[in-house]
From TrEMBL:
This is Diacylglycerol kinase. ATP binds at R15, E33, E81, K99, D100. Substrate binds at R15, E74. GO terms for cellular component: plasma membrane. One of its GO terms (molecular function) is metal ion binding. The keyword Ribosomal protein does not apply. The active site is at E74 (proton acceptor). The chain crosses the membrane at residues 38-56, 62-80, 101-122. A divalent metal cation binds at E33, E81. It is a multi-pass membrane protein.
Length: 125
């Protein structure tokens, strides 16, 4: 095996630390986005309701997965939008489609999250 390939596969504490730092920077950037703040606020409200209504462990697991999934998907949507903006400043139909598709994925997951929330919370009210 070539030594330069082996070096690329070697993971050091420094590389791991740098990876976490880059991920943290990405989250900081994502949390500055208005839509991410809306999702964070919704997640906080739903979490508070979960505490008030004493959710079961399984309900909490589902709720955490849905909130984390929503935040992760919004982060990916933002990354796609930033990448498209980097590639072109002029309107291009394919660029618009990429942005719309990513936003559509977020909307689809948000609708599913609302339905899951209703399944969890309505019986407790």
């Amino acid at each position: 095996m070539r030594s330069d390939l082996k070096d690329k596969r070697t993971y050091s504490a420094r590389r791991l630390t740098a990876s976490f730092r880059f991920a943290g920077n990405g989250l900081k950037m994502a949390f500055r986005e208005p839509n991410m703040r809306i999702h964070l606020a919704a997640g906080a409200i739903v979490s508070a309701a979960g505490f008030i209504l004493s959710l079961s462990r399984m309900e909490w697991c589902i709720l955490i997965l849905v909130i984390a999934g929503m935040l992760a998907l919004e982060t990916v949507n933002t990354a796609i939008e930033k990448t498209v903006d980097l590639v072109t400043e002029e309107y291009k139909p394919l660029a618009g489609m990429a942005k719309d598709l990513a936003a559509g994925a977020v909307l689809l997951f948000a609708c599913a999250a609302v339905i899951i929330g209703m399944i969890i919370f309505i019986p407790k009210l």
